Amino acid sequence: MWRAASSTAQSITGDIALSDEKISINFMGFVIAQIRHLEPGEVSAVFDADSAAGGSGNLYRLNIPSAKKFMHHNSLCGTEDTQWMATYVAGRTLKLAFFSGPNVPEFTLNAIANSTELCGTFSYVR
Questions:
Q1: Do residues 120 and 95 touch, judged by C-beta distance below 8 A?
Q2: N or C: which end of the chain has fewer CB within 10 A?
Q3: Per-residue pLDDT tens for 53-104?
Q4: Residues in contact with 54: Cβ distance below 8 Å, sequence separation at least 6, in sequence order
């Protein structure tokens, strides 16, 4: 279990549970599939994290329909289905980024800054 720490997490997802094969948001479970590990520079681009600080990141494939509403009747990606999730864990902190679109997100500073498929970033603590 992870407790919502950021304002986006508190207003959209609330607390979450995350395992190797599933994420539970607002008591609704969704299957996830790990695609690959993220390099430190990719983690830094998405989460504005110090790439020398350690921790690990992964990219996951998932499918959360836009019709799924969570806290306060919010969805993760507006009218788009959520299809990708990037994670970053360092110590007792978890950061998530959700993406729409069929193509694998590009994890560079320029691509993230200009992305129309980045739905939002969320922070959690243990």
A1: no
A2: N
A3: 778 999 999 999 999 999 999 999 999 999 999 999 999 999 999 999 999 9
A4: 90
